[in-house]
From TrEMBL:
This is PsbP C-terminal domain-containing protein. The lineage of its organism: Eukaryota, Viridiplantae, Streptophyta, Embryophyta, Tracheophyta. Pfam families: PsbP. Residues 42-182 form the PsbP C-terminal domain. InterPro entries: Mog1/PsbP_a/b/a-sand (IPR016123), PsbP_C (IPR002683). SUPFAM superfamilies: Mog1p/PsbP-like (SSF55724). Residues 14-38 are annotated as: Disordered.
Length: 185
């Protein structure tokens, strides 16, 4: 796994028994041009499995739905994780309205919610008291895990999506990716 800020990298290794184990590897740091330090400037972090590829996000996507980063499994291209953020949010709206508001700028999410077999939501707080809304959507042929929070006057939404067959095979890894997201406050 690679932490999105690239300040910590872990490798996901599969064993012949179909279980997974995380093996730490040395931390790495990198910057966005100049001498910037990603660890010092990171606003959020999340794990990415070793071998997954980053999809370059266009300026249009950044401007319309706030997509900031996206990674996908090159062997199963529809298995992916991505993060969106929108500026100007000081706190979360009620839990039930946040998911529907996110769907306004994401047609795939609208379709998933409207045809879902179940939508489960809960509130969680991390060790620093940061509030996160956590959603799990079991849709027709697709599964999605979403975490939403507000920090630094921004609303962050982290998505982990997979078609049902891949979800059934890779559920443990996908849940780990989902649970690894956190804001750096």
């Amino acid at each position: 796994m690679v932490e999105r800020s690239l300040c910590m990298r872990e490798t996901l290794q599969k064993h012949s028994t179909s279980t997974t184990a995380l093996q730490p590897v040395p931390p790495i740091t990198a910057g966005y041009g100049g001498n910037s330090d990603k660890k010092a400037s990171a606003e959020y972090v999340y794990d990415v499995p070793d071998g997954w590829k980053e999809r370059l996000v266009s300026k249009v996507e950044k401007g319309t739905n706030g997509t900031d980063s996206e990674f996908y499994n090159p062997k199963k291209r529809t298995e992916k994780e991505y993060l969106t953020f929108l500026s100007g949010f000081r706190q979360l709206a009620p839990k039930d309205s946040v998911l529907n508001n996110l769907a306004l700028s994401d047609v795939d999410l609208q379709d998933l919610i409207s045809g879902a077999d179940s939508v489960v939501s809960e509130e969680k707080k991390d060790g620093n008291g940061q509030l996160y809304y956590v959603y799990e959507i079991d849709g027709v042929g697709k599964h999605s895990l979403i975490t939403v929070t507000c920090a630094n006057n921004k609303l962050y939404a982290h998505f982990v999506n997979a078609p049902t067959p891949e979800w059934n095979k890779d559920q443990e890894t996908l849940r780990h990716l989902h649970e690894s997201f956190k804001t750096v406050v």
